[in-house]
Design goal:
By secondary structure, this protein is of the alpha/beta class. It has helices at about 1-15, 35-40, 65-75, 95-105, 120-125, 145-150, 165-175, 200-205, 240-245, 260-275, 280-285, 295-300, 310-315, 320-325, 380-385, 410-430, and strands at about 25-30, 45-50, 80-85, 110-115, 130-135, 155-160, 180-185, 235, 250-255, 295, 335-345, 350-355, 360-365, 370, 395-400, 405.
Length: about 425
């Protein structure tokens, strides 16, 4: 009876394996637990967040300790990659601490590290050679020469400078063929790629140490123009098809200090644009903007229309969309199809095989019983196995291989389902089934 079960598994593997992404990766910002739920449940392909130190958003909630492993496992079970930021400049006296931070991130299963300091990159390369390194935006990689230099330091993905035009991005990709990560929505820094000392000089809070106080948002006046250093947030969401054609492999959303509803809106808009649909830019603007958005750098139209500030109207606009956005991530969506096969033979433990098309888990239960009246039917067994509420899985195909006259109580069927899905969960997060 083993052959029919393996035939079910092979059928599943012959289908298109489950993937969240269909096109460039959507990469969402996560500042805390609620933002993580919003990002994953709204369909992001990857998230990025920091630990308690050495990240460019040290005032965000961030993660650490026991909750780090839990968050990484949560993402990996749902097919979401995790990139951890270790992207501040580091003092010599902090090298032992930053090594500990890198070790913690890599042990937890980070799929990549976002790095600015080359000393940090050197340690990652020597201690964790299998962990991918991504350049931080503050490296200001803006041409093919910069990418080739960073490749020599072990980097494999490159966050291109936000100041580049679409044509410049395309030229870089055509010349190098590397993975480009492009910011598609979120705040602009007045300084090139965030290499700014203004906050450090004015108040001792360095942007390159994750503590920027955003003095550029203050009421600086030049020739009668107020807020003369405050750029609008960029939004390239409507340009996503063109960015994909130009070689963008990851569409990065800025906003680790933003609320969960912002993350939900941005991920949802990016998914729509990637699918060729019209994104809801009005909701995106309502949840957060600074007098609207700009695409001035991407299109090469660098003029005063790129400047804006957070007005009272911008603030009050959010009230009308927050509840609706919160509903987008209120419940666990069941997005991962699984196939199951139940095997019943007299004198043998019941066996349930569960597969997602890549991984296969097996759970064993009690021995089946002789049916007093009606043997177990495929319909009854399928109904029990399909009760996957509260998990990210849903039952696609089901097969029953049972000798004549056998049955299994509903409670034991439920136990088998729970055991099988738990075993599959452990495989998906990289543990042992």
């Amino acid at each position: 009876m083993e052959a029919p079960i393996w035939a079910v598994i092979q059928r599943k593997r012959m289908k298109q394996p489950y993937e969240r992404s269909n096109g460039p990766e959507i990469l969402a910002p996560v500042g805390g637990a609620e933002q993580l739920l919003a990002a994953v449940r709204c369909g992001t392909d990857a998230v990025y967040f920091g630990l308690q130190g050495f990240n460019a958003r040290r005032n965000a909630e961030n993660f650490g300790g026991d909750d780090l492993q839990e968050r990484v496992d949560y993402c990996h079970e749902r097919g979401v990659k995790v990139y951890i930021t270790v992207n501040t400049l580091v003092f010599d006296t902090e090298l032992s601490q930053v090594k500990e931070t890198v070790d913690t991130a890599c042990r937890a299963g980070a799929d990549g590290l976002i790095v600015q300091d080359l000393a940090v990159a050197a340690y990652c390369r020597s201690a964790w050679p299998d962990t991918r390194l991504f350049t931080s935006t503050q490296m200001a990689v803006h041409n093919a020469e910069g990418i080739r230099l960073m490749q020599d330091f072990g980097f494999s993905r490159f966050v291109v400078a936000r100041e580049l035009t679409l044509a410049e991005m395309r030229a870089i990709h055509e010349e190098t063929g590397v993975e480009l990560e492009v910011f598609v929505h979120g705040a602009h820094c007045m300084s090139v790629s965030g290499n700014c000392y203004l906050s450090a000089m004015i108040g001792g809070r360095s942007g390159n140490r994750g503590l920027c106080a955003q003095p550029c948002r203050l009421e600086c006046t030049v020739n009668g123009r107020e807020h003369a250093l405050s750029l609008k947030d960029l939004s390239y969401v409507e340009h996503i098809p063109a960015l994909a054609a130009a070689g963008a492999k990851s569409l990065k959303i800025e906003g680790r200090m933003k609320r969960a509803e912002y993350v939900a809106a941005a991920v949802t808009a990016c998914r729509a644009a990637r699918a060729g649909k019209k994104p809801d830019m009005e909701t995106l603007r309502a949840v957060f903007s600074r007098s609207g958005f700009t695409d001035g750098y991407l299109t090469g139209k660098r003029d005063l229309s790129m400047y804006g500030t957070r007005t009272k109207e911008d603030v009050t606009a959010a009230a009308g969309v927050l509840k609706e956005l919160a509903r987008l991530y209120e419940k666990e969506p069941q997005t991962i199809p699984v196939d199951m096969a139940l095997y019943l033979q007299p004198g043998e433990p019941a066996q349930l095989t569960v597969t997602d098309g890549i991984r296969t888990a097996v759970a064993a239960g009690a021995e089946p019983q002789e049916a007093r009246t009606t043997p177990l039917s495929a319909q009854f067994a399928r109904e029990a196995m399909a009760k996957t509420g509260g998990t990210p899985y849903y039952l696609e195909d089901f097969s029953l291989f049972a000798a004549d006259g056998l049955t299994l109580p509903r409670g034991q069927l439920n136990d088998l389902r729970r055991q099988g899905l738990e075993a599959l969960r452990k495989l998906r997060i990289g543990g042992e089934a």
